[in-house]
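Good morning,

Attaching, inline, the backbone tokens for the sequence recovery test we're adding to the shared suite. The designed sequence is right after.
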């Protein structure tokens, strides 16, 4: 698979020397990133499956024609939205707030380009993850987002990533959120092709001092393959809230990596997965506490239907300097049948002595006593199971501060729960 990456062709189409250097460096580290692949993808055979489905990892970049056919995928009830097709930003289909700069990297002015080069490919996981390395090499265009200081937006900005290709597609984004700003994004991937797809997305986010970010992601990929790596670098007194909701996909791999660089950083990670149709959802998270007085809070919950597989691996690092750290991690799972599977592995590595850290995981089935109680009150078995599963998921959605956004995602989850096993 490595040999099918046509670096020479990719570099010949690249005009920016800075990007050429970044792609060259990623290619040199590509084989090295395979050293850790066996362990990091122990329960997730993503590379083997993709090798059977696709002849090459190199994308075929074709001009996008007839943009009107994609307009039906634009949410009618959203005030702001960014449309990206096969990794290419579509400004004519997008509607963004005036406070937000969105541009292709190679179209930035030199001053803005210099700012992004301090972040771009500096905080991703390409040195240790094969698919992230592949994204760095293969992506055709990095979409850059810049939010100036003292900017506060009440409405969330939706990012709609459309996949319309029988070849692998690559999405690359880089965010800079300056001091004292507060902003929310939601992101989804939509496959409009009749072919099984492989989409590869890498995102880097830089949060300056006192910045706040809410980031929501919904994944419903049917029989498609999807790799998603989100990498966050936080400065003093910044706050990040990440919500990941996953439902179907042949294989979905989520890497969420957070570096709390300065004092008083706060990171929340919430995830919910309700897996059906023989799907495999793999959530790998990492929180690196580098300085003191920071807090991380992580809670993932999963419902696994028959024939499906859930994977969770959460890592917490507390460096020697990171005294007064408070880190919490929890993963809870319900298996709805005997052939549903989950592999969960919490990890703590602590070099500081004045900390409060805890982790835990549970794997079980529906509470039979609670089910019997509901059915004894005249509620059908199907409706009783739905009530219990809904209550199980509510602990995650209750963490959403915005009531409108909370209702939106609660409705999505309830709809997905209806399709689970109720036998």
């Amino acid at each position: 698979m490595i040999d099918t990456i046509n670096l020479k062709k990719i570099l010949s189409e690249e005009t920016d020397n800075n990007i050429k250097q970044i792609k060259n460096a990623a290619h040199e580290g590509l084989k090295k990133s395979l050293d850790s692949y066996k362990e990091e993808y122990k329960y997730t055979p993503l590379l083997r499956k993709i090798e059977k489905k696709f002849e090459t990892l190199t994308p075929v970049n074709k001009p996008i024609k007839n943009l009107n056919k994609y307009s039906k995928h634009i949410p009618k009830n959203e005030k702001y939205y960014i449309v990206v097709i096969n990794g290419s930003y579509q400004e004519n289909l997008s509607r963004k707030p005036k406070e937000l700069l969105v541009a292709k990297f190679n179209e930035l002015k030199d001053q803005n380009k210099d700012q992004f080069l301090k972040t771009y490919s500096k905080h991703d996981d390409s040195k240790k993850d094969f698919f992230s390395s592949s994204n760095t090499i293969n992506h055709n265009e990095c979409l850059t987002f810049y939010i100036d200081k003292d900017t506060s937006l009440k409405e969330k900005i939706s990012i709609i990533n459309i996949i319309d290709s029988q070849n692998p597609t690559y999405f690359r984004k880089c965010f800079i959120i300056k001091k004292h700003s507060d902003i929310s994004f939601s992101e989804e991937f939509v496959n409009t092709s009749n072919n099984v797809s492989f989409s590869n997305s890498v995102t880097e986010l830089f949060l300056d001092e006192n910045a706040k970010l809410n980031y929501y992601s919904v994944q419903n990929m049917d029989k498609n393959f999807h790799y998603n790596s989100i990498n966050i670098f936080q400065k003093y007194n910044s706050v990040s809230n990440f919500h990941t909701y996953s439902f179907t996909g042949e294989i979905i791999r989520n890497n969420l990596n957070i570096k709390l660089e300065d004092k008083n950083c706060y990171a929340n990670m919430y995830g919910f997965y309700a897996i059906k149709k023989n799907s495999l959802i793999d959530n790998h998270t990492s929180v690196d506490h580098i300085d003191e007085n920071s807090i991380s809070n992580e809670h993932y919950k999963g419902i696994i239907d028959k024939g499906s597989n859930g994977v969770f691996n959460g890592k917490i690092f507390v460096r020697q300097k990171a005294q007064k750290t408070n880190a919490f991690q929890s993963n809870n799972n319900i298996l709805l049948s005997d052939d549903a599977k989950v592999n969960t592995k919490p990890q703590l590595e602590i070099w500081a002595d004045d900390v409060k850290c805890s982790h835990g995981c549970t794997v079980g089935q529906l509470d039979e006593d609670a089910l019997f109680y509901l059915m004894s009150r005249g509620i059908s078995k199907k409706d009783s199971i739905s009530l219990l599963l809904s209550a199980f998921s509510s602990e995650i959605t209750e963490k959403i501060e915005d009531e409108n956004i909370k209702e939106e995602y609660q409705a999505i989850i309830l709809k997905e729960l209806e399709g689970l096993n109720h036998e």
